[in-house]
Design a protein that fits this description.
Blueprint lengths: L1 E4 L4 H11 L3 H4 L15 H11 L5 H8 L15 H13 L3 E6 L3 H16 L3 E5 L12 H9 L4 E5 L6 H9 L3 E5 L14 E3 L15 H16 L2 H21 L6 H14 L5 H9 L10 H18 L3 H8 L3 H35 L1 H4 L4 E6 L6 H12 L3 E7 L2 E7 L6 H6 L7 E4 L3 E7 L3 H15 L8 E4 L1 E2 L7 H7 L14 E8 L4 E3 L3 E8 L16 E6 L3 H6 L7 E11 L6 E10 L18
Parallel strand pairs: 1-12, 2-3, 2-4, 4-5, 5-6, 7-8, 13-14, 17-19
Antiparallel strand pairs: 8-9, 9-11, 10-11, 14-16, 14-18, 15-16, 16-17, 18-19
Helix pairs in contact: 1-3, 3-20, 5-9, 6-9, 6-10, 6-14, 7-8, 9-10, 10-11, 10-13, 12-15, 13-15, 14-15
């Protein structure tokens, strides 16, 4: 693994650190102030460096980032099409016309349905919903659903988290006299946007909305915000917006959109509100995911405990159960539905393991796949609800773009994930003639195609990837944000780091390096796969301005799934190593305190050139 530490202007760091002392969220604490004027190793300097790495270079932008507020939300009417959409929804509510919300089956889509349906009902309207079955209907809007809705008297359909490329369904709605409002966040295609009454998408051409990275539920939230501003008393709006943020936070984190700007407001305020959840379904889901409400859940718990259970409904069965879970009033019924999602998630995990075993065997036995710049692997009858997760695992393991395709007779359905230097949607569009439909963005895509075209897709995508990537792009890279001495890892630093949460895409937990630290005891193996190191800074490696501090001299460092590393690079007491780590805190009452979480470790010498560079080698 290659460590990358970007240079930051020391004068800029010094200036921002000085400005940070006057921020309200930091002003009250004296623990951040330097011991003397010459000390440059104060925690505020580390925080300033981390903020500058996030392109936050002045006190005002830093303050908005460190203390997100509902006042930081942008005005919804700045989004193209939103005012027209709210006008039409408002008219439907006034006439007591039924509304159909057409949403995707994943976390983002189902949360968007819940937000908009609830907002319409709070404003006095009536809204039903349709969430497609992943296997029987597939992604995006369908003509037959619109036709049935029109026959049932529906005159307004609102899409959420889909529809930006639904040209044919939009024409069907127009022909049948149904007004269609498209709300989406996916990138429009080269042909522009569908002919709808209103298209609400910050990524459409000409939209001047200041933040472009919203997820589908975030766009639905802005429509709900505009509607409630129109129809509800001002005194109720803040309370309801904060309530909706719990749901938007789940979708924002699950959809892996950047946790910056408005998304950071959603995630930060929404996570805090989750500990005060009153919705019976949400409370049952938190309980099933074993998430305590004594503190706000963090983004990792949402991403790996809450989101997979919600996603499991759409992947393995029917996503309507998610809408019902968040709508039900009876706690017993809520617990039954949450239990069903939990069981479906267990089934999903087993199916995922089965597919990954098959893929690993295929890669091991196929020299062409071993040398591929873009991995395209297919299998007959693989569960279509799991192939996206399988693609993610392949990218994590081999650090190359990956497409996982499930063949069902003459039809094939695929899902792709990518690495940072490779824009996946551009790659897919380079082979658009092979697909019956496709969509996505830079790091993820989905598509359908004739099974006979899969070999050609494998050839074309690999050729395209070779024009965009080099073997150096396959080396896993760890972005290190600062180099610290171990004695700089203090409770004051940890307290400052918590202000950067929640972590996620676009705001990763900061990783640090410490050079030439000493093992003071033999490594311990935990549960046959993890390691625990006891580390101390070497003499002469104490940093500046430390003579007046009480320093913690020894740290526990936990390396998750690193036991195999000790077979490759045995460690002994007394060895010196360089480490890359994040800073955490163990809350155990007896042996808690600051601890390090290892991201990587290596001997403090130059690394040899890898003779296998360019070949497909698992990272784990």
């Amino acid at each position: 693994m290659r460590w990358e530490l970007a240079a930051v202007d020391p004068a800029q760091v010094q200036a921002l650190a000085a400005a940070l002392r006057d921020l309200p969220c930091l002003r009250s604490s004296s623990s951040y102030r330097p011991v003397d004027s010459t000390e440059r190793r104060n925690p505020l300097h580390t925080l300033a460096r981390l903020l500058i790495r996030r392109r936050l270079t002045d006190a005002d932008s830093a303050a908005r980032f460190l203390a997100p507020s509902i006042a930081h939300l942008h005005l919804p009417e700045h989004m193209t099409g939103l005012r027209c959409a709210v006008d039409r929804i408002d008219a439907a509510i006034e006439r007591k016309d039924p509304i159909l919300i057409y949403g995707d089956y994943d976390v983002d889509g189902t949360m968007a349905v819940i937000i908009l349906k609830t907002a319409i009902e709070l404003c006095g309207g009536t809204a039903d919903f349709h969430v497609p079955h992943r296997i029987r209907e597939g992604y995006d809007m369908r003509d037959d659903v619109i036709e049935r809705a029109a026959a049932a008297g529906i005159r307004l359909i609102i899409s959420v988290d889909m529809g930006i490329r639904a040209f044919a369904p939009a024409e069907t709605a127009h022909r049948l006299g149904v007004d269609l409002i498209v709300t989406d966040h996916h990138l429009p295609g080269p042909d522009g946007v569908p002919r709808a009454l209103a298209v609400v998408n910050p990524n459409q051409a000409g939209c001047e909305y200041p933040y472009k990275q919203l997820c589908g539920a975030g766009v639905a939230f802005k429509v709900a915000q505009g509607l409630m501003q129109r129809r509800l008393p001002e005194k109720d709006q803040t309370r309801l917006l904060l309530s909706f943020m719990k749901v938007v936070a789940i979708a924002t984190i699950a959809d892996a959109v950047p946790l910056s700007g408005e998304n950071r407001v959603f995630a930060s305020l929404g996570l805090d509100a989750l500990r005060r959840a009153v919705n019976p379904g949400l409370k049952a889901l938190l309980e099933m995911a074993q998430i305590s409400t004594k503190r706000p859940p963090n983004s990792t718990e949402v991403a790996f405990r809450i989101a997979p259970r919600i996603n499991a409904a759409g992947r393995m069965d029917v996503a309507r159960d998610v809408i019902e879970l968040f709508s039900v009033k009876d706690p017993d019924r809520a617990r039954l539905l949450a239990g069903k999602l939990d069981r479906l998630n267990a089934e999903r995990q087993e199916e995922e393991r089965r597919i990954l075993r098959s893929i690993d065997e295929r890669i091991a036995c196929d020299p062409a796949l071993c040398e591929a710049y873009c991995i395209v692997v297919d299998g007959e009858g693989w569960h279509r609800g799991v192939i996206g997760i399988a693609a993610t695992r392949i990218v994590e393991r081999y650090h190359r773009p990956a497409m996982v395709i499930s063949r069902h007779g003459e039809e094939a359905f695929g899902s792709g994930r990518s690495i940072r230097p490779f824009h996946l949607l551009e790659a897919v569009e380079s082979s658009r003639a092979l697909f019956t439909r496709y969509g996505g963005h830079s790091h993820a895509c989905g598509f359908a195609m004739p099974s006979a075209n899969v070999p050609q897709l494998r050839t074309e995508l690999d050729a395209f990837a070779r024009t965009r990537l080099t073997t150096a792009d396959f080396d896993p890279v760890l972005e290190v944000q600062a180099e610290l001495h171990l004695n700089e890892v203090t409770p004051a630093l940890f307290q400052l780091l918590t202000l950067l949460e929640p972590y996620g895409t676009g705001n990763h937990e900061p990783a640090f390096t410490a050079r030439n630290v000493r093992l003071i005891a033999p490594p311990k193996i935990l549960k046959d796969k993890h390691i625990k190191l006891k580390l101390k800074a070497n003499a002469g490696n104490q940093g500046q301005g430390t003579e007046n501090r009480q320093l913690r001299s020894v740290f526990d460092a936990l390396g998750w799934n690193m036991a195999d590393r000790l077979q490759q690079s045995p460690l002994l007491a007394g060895d010196a190593i360089d480490i890359a780590f994040t800073v955490g805190h163990n809350d155990h009452p007896d042996f808690g305190g600051l601890e390090l979480s290892l991201r990587d470790f290596k001997a403090p010498v130059a690394e040899p050139v890898n003779p296998d560079q360019g070949k497909l080698i698992p990272l784990s």
